[in-house]
């Protein structure tokens, strides 16, 4: 079978932070082994985004629409277009037109185009790509909350009704996400492909060199209980709920530590100033500043998971969260909340993970239950690891993606 050229279209890509793009970035080597050559088409971030996520990263002074020098990431070419620092809808229009021009060139014309985000105002680009007879796919990564204002709801409805019929396939991560789209009136093709996790990288460690190194760097005793959270510190992720539960837990477990891996949006986003103050007040009230560790973004999340004893995920709204799957694959017991988007693809509550309502008291009780019960902690860890290897292993998931891309290209 001849190789296939896939264009991954995403306005944000490494080294600029974007959760969905990070996941697909991890798929690149596996797709290449399956005969799929990926080219990434992306853009420079806005100044606002740079201030939040990309401090110290310079953007070359080029005219809007110009391509930067081609980069290479994991053997995949990365084409980055310079966008003006303008209103979001103008940036979307500029990105779409640049993508259309890119796909028209014989040297870079792909066999399939997959969008990660598909923001409003993408319809003109989608129509032009359809006229080029290019198969179009879209990875729907998050169940978004409906806009509050009437104008926003009307725009949301209009763009979805105009966008989705132009797509050959919408890829979702779970049955819940597929059901949400059907209930919203989407009648086109929907493929359910869960996120994949590298169960060889995210795995329990028999030796303790890596966990000891991480704990030593954070000044944590090797025998101390360690709770870990991975993700941005922001309201949607339930960071306030986590710290409220921690304030109750910390006095009862004076040796325990809380480690948070991910960007601190509460510090970087001025709109979250009050949220940041609330978090700081909770930490101060618990008197555990020396036992709460914000480590920011790290290259090796697996090492931090392997150094922990319990994974806590108090999110309010998700797709199919990779970090939960990675914790399960690592053999960590997981305590999570019934976030919007929780689905059977993650297993069964009480078997593969424990479920706590969106209440600080109940989250505290579930964490406490796991810390005090060695048998429960071991059982959840075993069950989570078994589920991840049987249902979510990245090699199986990549086979499904490859089959879909070849079908779309040769249909």
Give structural notes:
The chain is α/β, with parallel strands linked by helices and 411 residues long. It folds into 2 domains: 4-196 and 394-410, Glycogen Phosphorylase B (Rossmann fold, 3-Layer(aba) Sandwich); 209-391, Glycogen Phosphorylase B (Rossmann fold, 3-Layer(aba) Sandwich), CATH 3.40.50. Helix content is 42%, strand content 15%. The chain has 15 helices and 14 strands. It has helices at 19-33, 47-53, 88-104, 123-131, 150-163, 175-183, 209-217, 239-252, 265-268, 273-286, 301-306, 322-329, 360-372, 374-391, 394-410, and strands at residues 4-9, 36-43, 71-73, 76-81, 112-115, 136-140, 169-172, 190-192, 226-230, 257-261, 292-296, 310-313, 334-336, 354-355. The mean pLDDT is 90.
Notable characteristics:
411 residues, Rossmann fold, 2 domains, 8-stranded mixed β-sheet, 6-stranded parallel β-sheet
Query: What Rg is obtained from the alpha carbons, in whole angstroms?
Result: 22 Å
CATH architecture of the largest domain: 3-Layer(aba) Sandwich
What is the 3D shape?
globular
Query: Multimeric state of these chains?
Result: single chain
Give the rounded overall mean pLDDT.
Answer: 90
CATH-defined superfamily of the largest domain: Glycogen Phosphorylase B
Low-confidence stretches are none
* Count of individual domains: 2
Tally of DSSP helical segments: 15
Work out the number of β strands.
14
TL;DR of this structure?
The chain has helices at residues 19-33, 47-53, 88-104, 123-131, 150-163, 175-183, 209-217, 239-252, 265-268, 273-286, 301-306, 322-329, 360-372, 374-391, 394-410; strands spanning 4-9, 36-43, 71-73, 76-81, 112-115, 136-140, 169-172, 190-192, 226-230, 257-261, 292-296, 310-313, 334-336, 354-355. The chain has 15 helices and 14 strands.
């Amino acid at each position: 079978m001849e190789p296939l050229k896939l264009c991954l279209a995403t306005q944000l890509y490494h080294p600029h932070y974007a959760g969905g793009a990070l996941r697909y970035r991890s798929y690149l080597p596996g797709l290449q082994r399956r005969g799929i050559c990926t080219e990434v088409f992306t853009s420079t971030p806005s100044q606002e985004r740079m201030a939040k996520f990309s401090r110290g990263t310079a953007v070359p002074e080029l005219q809007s629409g110009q391509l930067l020098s081609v980069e290479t990431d994991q053997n995949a070419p990365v084409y980055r277009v310079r966008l003006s620092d303008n209103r979001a809808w103008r940036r979307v229009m500029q990105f779409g037109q640049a993508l259309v021009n890119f796909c028209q060139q014989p040297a870079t014309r792909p066999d399939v185009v997959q969008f990660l985000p598909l923001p409003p105002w993408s319809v003109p680009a989608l129509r032009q790509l359809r006229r080029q007879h290019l198969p179009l796919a879209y990875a729907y990564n998050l169940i978004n909350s409906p806009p509050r204002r009437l104008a926003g709801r009307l725009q949301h409805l209009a763009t979805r009704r105009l966008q989705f019929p132009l797509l050959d396939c919408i890829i979702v991560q779970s049955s819940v996400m597929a059901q949400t789209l059907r209930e919203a009136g989407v009648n086109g093709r929907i493929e359910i492909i869960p996120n994949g996790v590298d169960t060889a990288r995210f795995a329990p460690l028999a030796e303790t060199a890596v966990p000891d190194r991480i704990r030593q760097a954070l000044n944590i005793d090797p025998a101390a209980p360690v709770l870990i959270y991975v993700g941005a510190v922001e309201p949607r992720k339930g960071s306030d709920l986590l710290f409220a539960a921690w304030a109750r837990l910390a006095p009862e477990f004076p040796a325990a530590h809380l480690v948070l891996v991910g960007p601190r949006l509460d510090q970087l986003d001025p709109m979250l100033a009050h949220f940041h103050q609330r978090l700081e007040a909770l930490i101060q009230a618990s008197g555990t500043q020396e036992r709460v560790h914000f480590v920011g973004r790290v290259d090796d999340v697996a090492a931090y998971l392997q150094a922990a004893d319990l994974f806590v995920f108090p999110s309010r709204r998700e797709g199919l969260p990779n970090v939960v799957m990675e914790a399960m694959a690592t053999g960590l017991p997981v305590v999570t909340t019934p976030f919007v988007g929780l689905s059977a693809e993650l297993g069964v509550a009480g078997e593969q993970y424990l479920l706590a309502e969106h209440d600080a008291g109940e989250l505290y009780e579930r964490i406490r239950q796991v810390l005090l019960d060695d048998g429960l902690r071991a059982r959840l860890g075993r069950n989570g690891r078994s589920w991840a290897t049987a249902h979510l292993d990245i090699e199986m998931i990549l086979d499904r993606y490859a089959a879909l891309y070849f079908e779309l290209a040769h249909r």
